Batch of 3 targets.
Target 1
Amino acid sequence: MAKINVSVIRQGIRGRLKVKEETRKFYNGIFIDLGELVLFTGKVFQQMFQSPFEFREFTKHGFLLGNKSLPLVAVTGFIMGLVLTMQMHPVLADFGAQTLLPGVVAISMVRELGPVITGLICAGKISSGIGAEIAAMTVTEQIDAMEVSGTRPLSFVVASRITAATLVVPILVIFADAFSLFGSFLAVNIFEDTSLTLFFNRSFSMMGFVDLFPSILKTVFFGFFIGLIGSYKGYTAGRGTESVGLAANSAVVEASLTIFVIDLVFVLITSIL
Amino acid sequence: MKNTKKTLRLGIFIASALILFIVAIYLIGSKQNLFSSNTEVHASFKDIRGLMSGNIVRFAGINIGTVNDIRVVADTSVIVSMTIQDAYTDFIYKNSSVQIGQEGLMGGKIVLISTGDPATGKVEEGDYLPVAEGIDIQAMIAQATEMLDEAKGTVANLRSITGKLDTGDGDIARLLNDSDLTIALGEATTSLNASLSDVNGITTKINNGQGDLGKLVNDDSITTQLNLITANLSSITKKADSVVNQLHQTSYTINHGDGVLPRLLNDRQMGLTVDTVITSVDQGVIEITKAAETIANSWIFRLFSKKKEKPNDQQPETLKVNAGDTIIIRPVNRNIPEVPEE
């Protein structure tokens, strides 16, 4: 009769229990994070609509997040328009539908690519920046100092940044769309001579308000969540210096993921409309 | 100061984006005639073929409006409402027909408005325009499919014909494939060439004036003589014509005239009278003959006669004359030809 190795069985059971425990911690962590984020959002909303509004901080961060991001967004949008046009030209040329190219590129950029690409750029630049900056303030106990000194850190530090991000991301998307159309115009002129007037007529001939407004509206949400997630990750960062990097990294990842989720929700809503 | 500069740059940044956004709204809105005064007109279609709100309305190749509403009012009636820019309503009349077209093969549907009759007046708000049958791609495809089927049948027939021509034994196939006919044609051509050579020799002789035919063809004297003969014949013919005419006149006169001869020919009564006269003359002649014989035999006449005739022993032959007989009195010393007896 074979001997049963009890120790092996015990090890197996312990291993399985350990896995279950980690899984439980992981899922609990997600839901705990989500709950804390909702509570954090509520507090931030309260601070946003409480006077005095930190307008100077708002303009400062608006300038830093918006103006400083414009060259990056403009170059990205320009290249996206150029590349998209050059990629689509042979496909449409096969059907003899080159004249549809400006309209197709414009709709693609305005509805989807412009907002999402700009959102991802902002997630990488703005959200990580906000996360790292606030995390550094948390690590260096500046937030605590603010609370002690009676300054409302949620209003001064967080709400101003989130409001600024909410405002500048749609503006950056508008710029990205505009620059992408100029890039597309350049690409179209590589293949055939087209005047700027004709190009814009063709671009907007296929476009409607149903293409423009939902895309601008969703970028408002993009901006809000980019600012919110960056601020939350920084605000809830640990005490160690590594928390700064961790906060910046997780802010980028979660903000990017959130952008795709919001995009999906908006696409579903606009497809119903 | 530094902060103000940042605020200014942020303001420019936001204002620029707002301007771009407003321009985009204007461009899109102007395509949908949101920023111009419009006239709404309607048309009732049986089938709108996928037309949607927002599609273009086109007149004379110009985009003049958009479809702004589509309503189904009955199972065979879909009301399409269109907004047309007021700038173009002067050129659209109440009988301008509308039809659903397609913006290229890949493009969407559009509404096409055709020109109308100015006498019917300009189109006004709420007017219903007449509907014309538009180009239906599906119908064209169906027609093209039908044509392709027919073409396929034709190609099959052609293939069959070419197959028969290539391998069959019909006349055309033999013409194409066999050389017998070519050989026969070659022989015939040789014979024809020989015949033509003979004909050429004959014509050469004729041209040279050899033989009767050559003379006939080349010598003018025969023609001159023939011309003379022809002239004589012509003269004779004219005379004959004259004679014939006279005969015709004579015969006409005989047939229709009122002289003796026509009456003799045509009048029965005249004939009877003549018969009666002749009979009477016959009887008179008999009587005269008898009287003359009596006188000749009388003694007084003999008395004064130089010649004494012997009494004729022979009894004179008694002439028996019947009514209708013809008596010819012949003088003694004249030779009168005898009338042959019938």
Target 2
Amino acid sequence: MTLRFDKLGVVIAAIVAYAAFAAPFATFRANRIVPGQARSILEALPLTLAILLIAIVIAGGIIALLRTPLLLRLAASVIALVALAILIGTAGGFLTPAGNTFARVAPASGFWLLIFAFTLLLADVLTRLDLSPLARVGVLAVAALAIGALLVSGSWDSLSILKEYASRADSFWAEGSKHITLALGSLAVAVVAGIPLGILCHRVEPLRAGVLNVLNIIQTIPSIALFGLLIAPLGWVAAHVPGAAAVGIRGIGTAPAFVALFLYSLLPVVANTVVGLAGVPRAANDAARGMGMTDRQRLFDVEFPLAFPVVLTGIRIVLVQNIGLATIAALIGGGGFGVFVFQGVGQTAMDLVLLGALPTVALAFAAAIILDAVIEMTSTSRRAEPA
Amino acid sequence: MKAWLPALLRLALLVLLVVFIASPDWFEPLLKPLTENGAPAIYNQGSLLTLTLLHLRTVLVATVAATIVAVALAILVTRPAGTEFLPLSRSLVNIGQTFPPVAVLALAVPAVGFGEKPTLIALFLYGLLPIFENALTALTTLPGNVMEAARGAGMTGWQRLMKVELLLSAPVILGGIRLSVVISLATATIGSTVAAKTLGEVIIAGLISNNLAFVLQGGLIVAALAVLIYDGLSAIERYAARRMGREAE
């Protein structure tokens, strides 16, 4: 059998070779804001573990490089990722001098590149396996559990990000729940308001262009400006409408952020409802009319169920977008993970930035995978039903 | 609605925008009621004109770079030699879109420092996705009979790409560029949180000093730019689509 190369594998192997031998594996800093010193794999780990990691990584690179069975590639990528995840924690403990609480050990470019390379391999394998929607959610759950287990086990506690976390654990969860409330709450309100508005736009032709144009223009206002512009009207409402201040409406803080996210969420929900309803086959509508269905029955039993996957696509766009945009709420005192990002930028403490950015990315990523799976399930089950 | 009305509205918006940027002082009485305690109504720590031009330059540089890279990648993965990368590139685009721009911006700072560079990187990465996605859609849904005819006419792969595929894909690729530009125009304002010179500076100055007039003028200039550029690119797109005999979206 002749050796055949996998084209993607060439790219992955090149990244692996560079990351393992030429790039630093971890950075060591005497305290949290001074520039770091690079440490290679051999310097960052006890000798036997370093050799083990290098062996795993090289084997993984070779398996990626050659045309190998999918399951072998899957195993190689998973083993490499798990080994990297566990050993970076070991490196943290190994590099930190005993009893020193100021020193910070952070993963460096080599580590991130290795993670990137093997995630690429894993993503390629998963794409080629063409998993069912449920299986994809399952993979996500397994990955989340694995990361959760590593966090709980304390093997990452010596890493700088978790040291930042340890000193603000309470506010981390408070900001996290604020972040999720902002993103999900504004989405919920947008769905409740947007779907009826979309149905109205579908039924009343003259409204459609006007409503969609206004919503389109709202999207062009930069997020930080929209957040800022809402401060004044909400401040006015808080001061002049009895009871408004009591339910938490204030000029700065969560209220303007919530309203801004709601306004941004409306366009995808309304537009997708209109598109979904417009895409309902005329035959289905005619048949429903022929059966003597009333307008209301037709809407709830025929049109809306058929348009539902398209509406869900709109909701997916909004959710991913909201999770990202909610970071900006921190600029106007609205809380969320953005608090850590902007504090970190201000203090040039990158670990703090990561503490805010990584959960945001993870949330958005998980939301995208779960909603994609739901969309696929609703649209295929409908297609499979006899027409 | 009469056909000339939208055109007239756009022209009015353009004139208003140019006049406002060129001599914002004329508008001071309009914005004055929004300020408190005698704060200045017009941004006074730099000229709005310069900031607008810098803002546009940042978006332009990032979009041109993103277009070149995205179209080149889309061409690569749709050639026979690159088909192995096609499914993966699709999933990567999906994953990439879940990264919030603020995170990209903040994470680029340690690598390249404060200022314009992290903003360019964030805009570049964020702009790649819509263009790549549209280019990929366009190149994979070309009408089969046209491709057949081009092959039958004895065109080489390179000739087919340059004279048939790219030209036919142009309207859809332009649609991706338009999306990308509009997103970048708004995202560039966030760049000012890492000290990039964009119109975001005006908005952030307003947020910090609680001056609503600053927030409003910064936000409205960006929004007006986005609306005008969106319309302009839509017009180019329709023109290209007409020439290619394809229906615009």
Target 3
Amino acid sequence: MGRYLSKKITIYVLTFFIAVTLDWAIPRFMPGNPISILVSRFSALPNARKVLTSYFTQSFGLDKPILVQYLNFWKAFFHGDLGISVYLYPKPVIDIIKESLPYDIALLLPSITLSWIFGNWLGALAAKNRILDKTLIPVLYVFTAMPYFWFAIIIAWILGVVVPIFPISGAYSYSMTPELSWTFFLDFLYHWFLPFLTLFTVMLGGWAIGMRNMIIYEIEANYSRYLESLGSSDKLILRYAFRNAVLPQVTGLALQLGTIVAGALTTEMVFSYPGIGYLLLQGILHQDYFLIQGCFLFIVLSVLAANFLVDLIYVIIDPRVRYSYTEGA
Amino acid sequence: MKEWLKKHDTLYFMLTNKRFVGGMIFILSMVTLAILGPWLAKIELRWYLENGVKEALDPTANIGIPYSPPSSQHWLGTNSFGQDVFLQLVYGLRSSLLIGIIGGGLATFIGLVVGFVSGYSGGMIDELLMMLTNIMLVIPTMAVLIIIAAYLPYRGVMIESVIIGFTGWPWTARAVRSETLSLKSRGFVHLARISAVKPMRIIFGEIAPNMLSYVFMVFILQFGGSILAAVGLDFIGLGPTRGTSLGLMLQQAVLWNAIQLGMWWWIIPPGAIITALVAALYTVNTGLDEAFNPKLREM
């Protein structure tokens, strides 16, 4: 247990370290001197002197030795200073990210958990039902091959334009301002539904297929055969198989998080949903490098945190993990 | 013919597997479309060529009337700029396939080397390489791609495939490592070792042939994965700075309100062709799995 967690934590700390270093190094060592572009973009803004003296001298300080620059970058990072956005000048990047965070959580948390649960259930069902296996699984295969954002485009076109039931842009009506009231909440849900539906459906396929394959594998395993020869019911065998098959699915969740987040980014872009993905698109379109870098750091850190959470859950649901890990599977 | 095939049983099972054959036919027809595309476009856009519009075969040329639905003159209509959608689709397919081959090939190669060295040598090298692999595995690939691509002022299909290849290898390395570990402890390898066969001969004579089928399957998955990664990157706006690609087409479509305007001929074909291509690759992969793995063969 201790060894398992300490090894995992070492990896996460190292990864975190490398991610921040990448964020620091890429603009400095890329061809074409991106920093001079950055500075020139700022000099066109009002109060440029103020910005340049605050953040640039703090974290960039280009006249200083590289190592000092690097240490200063860390210092700024721990003060929550990710620079100032050009696109939404003069807002600090950290504040912009904070504002879009609730939308991401509202979208990602339900869609990931619900699709995982429902997908596993569907996969287990398909494993023993031949008709379902022949009809549903091929459809789900197509879903896994689909770029998230293309499915978002199709859903938006069908449910927003051909049959205009749902709004296809924004997180709430333009006439509203975010507040704690029923009308706002309903309006929010109304706008939330299509992006949620997209993410839920596209992710569903992968989980269902994974579960189906695992269950089929488990049913072939010796313990299932033994149960069968003892004359126990299919339902009981399936229950044992499910419990074993769900473990790789938990690991799969951790491994898939990066892909899911990337998919969610593009989905938000389609629906102009004001999460990190939409922010990133704006950053790229307006060449707002601080915003892009801030989004990068934020995405990496949240995926790391989520991975760690999955690891903790794994320890709880599978006590064997401490043994298997020390053996080095 | 049949007798000869029976002797090479894996090949026999491959060619009699419906999934493998069906998927392969689709992929090959897509490759054909990509190769013959510019020639087909000459037939499609003959009206322009006959009337001396020389740039008609440039996918970024605004030649037609904007917003026109599919017709005999423009098989898949035109977009908001009057560019021919079919022409863009064909060129986009070309770059997608190229990215699949280069990016997927590179990712497979790196994953193979890292995984094999790690699994075969063990010890300290194994620890270090797996540490690196695990770190790469946790960092979301797309985020790294974004930050690298954002700072490259000029991006071509080549650069895009190389950065996709360099970030896509970790899961392959892990899978190849565990495959190597299990092969390493098989009887025939032990036998070779105690018969004092040289390590290089064990690797290339005993282990490599047994991994060939596996590597082929990994490449197919990486091929599909690279195509999807590239499409996502293009859609975000970090694709090739010149020319066209399937992701770029979709990005333009969204930015120019093709959804609201109901221009289905602009939004459906690029995504449909990617989905079909990747689905076909997955199908081929499942078919190969059945062909190579006797347990899964349907008798």
